[in-house]
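Record format v2
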Amino acid sequence: MPLNQDFVGRCFVAEVPFQVGREHIRKFARAVGDDNPLYHDVAAARAAGFADLVAPPTFLINAMPGTLGLPTDDPALGLDYTLVVHGEQRFQLHRPVVAGDELVTSSTLTSIRAVGRNELLVTTYQYETTGGEQVATGICTLVSRGTAAPRG
Amino acid sequence: MSASPAVDGRAGETAVGETAVGETMTAMIGYDDVEVGTELPERLFPLRRADLVRYAGASGDFNPIHWSDRAAAEAGLPGVIAHGMLTMATAARLVTDWIGDPRALVEIGVKFSSPVVVPDDDEGATVSVRGVVEKKLDGNRVVVNLTTRCRGEKVLMASRATVRLP
């Protein structure tokens, strides 16, 4: 069943800021197989001029309201998450995320359009700290497989 | 392309804490050191089913298509597939390891063109990543075009990172 177009233009923000923690950075870096000392060793990060452990660039995907920035558990959207695959992802980083950052991420669903049998959901993200510092922006395309309305 | 690309062990199998401090603390590549066509040598990154489960836990993305054969089959996929963001993180790593300093990465974008199927066996899947400097821009910025393959197929397309070099 096609997705609910009423959600286009809506902006989603988590109720509480995303607290970037050291152990989450370490766990995430291990999960992507990255042993860069800046992601694991506080002393190494400080010696390199960072306030604390540095997060790998794609760590930003964690600091997202809902699932990948969308209210996937809201039945009104009509998204079956098992039919979703990632289509495209882009981040522009103003500075690396470090442990101790409190991030406020706003995610805006900018379009839902049918391409063949699939629907493409485009979402844009803005990451800023609770202090109002812009940290990064992002854009994501998700593919909802086979949910487009049949032609005719 | 190098004849025998370096194979990376997963962090779970290596002693993370033993990495030499300072090894990657400063950018070692300068803007004047690179030209259009400069290559980032190919590296191989093995991905096994346990790595997908670990990534699910670390990222909070528990979509069952990334760990359950049953869910993947029901969703019409050829098998359990890696999280796109795990493949992207792997591609990004070629760049952050090359430049040494994660501050230098200013933009990265990829299109997921083909899924990385990760069977539940000892082999899993192997993702290969190589890069080439595509453009030199003002402000000491350099655009790296990344080629990421699995089983010979391009799993990422239009995959580019922009870095600001000293």
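Chain A touches chain B through 45 residues (CB under 8 Å).
Chain A has one domain: 5-144.
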